[in-house]
Design brief:
Blueprint: H1 7-20, H2 24-39, H3 44-57, H4 66-82
Helix pairs in contact: 1-2
């Protein structure tokens, strides 16, 4: 592969390779591996925005006793278990 880099990037690459006593190609490979590992993570700005959103939504979350929530879940499961296709009935 061939890449074109600006002079500032080339200078930084050469300086880093010399300081680390590593070939420039290894410095590039390591830099790409580090970047790839961080690319899927949230930036600090995104993380703070998500936390602000969570904090804003948290107070509106209903606060009910666990027994009420458990009863509602049981009712939903019971309703789901009686619905759906009936065995032995085929559509034409």
């Amino acid at each position: 592969m061939t890449f074109t880099l600006d002079e500032a990037t080339v200078a930084a690459l050469r300086q880093s390779a010399a300081r680390l006593a590593k070939p420039q190609s290894l410095v590039v490979r390591e830099a790409i591996a580090d970047y790839a590992a961080r690319a899927g993570r949230l930036s600090e700005r995104e993380r703070l925005e998500w936390l602000r959103t969570f904090d804003a939504l948290m107070p509106v979350s209903p606060r009910r006793p666990a027994r009420e929530v458990d009863a509602e879940i049981r009712a939903i499961r019971a309703a789901r278990s009686t619905g759906g296709r009936r065995s032995g009935v085929r559509s034409k």
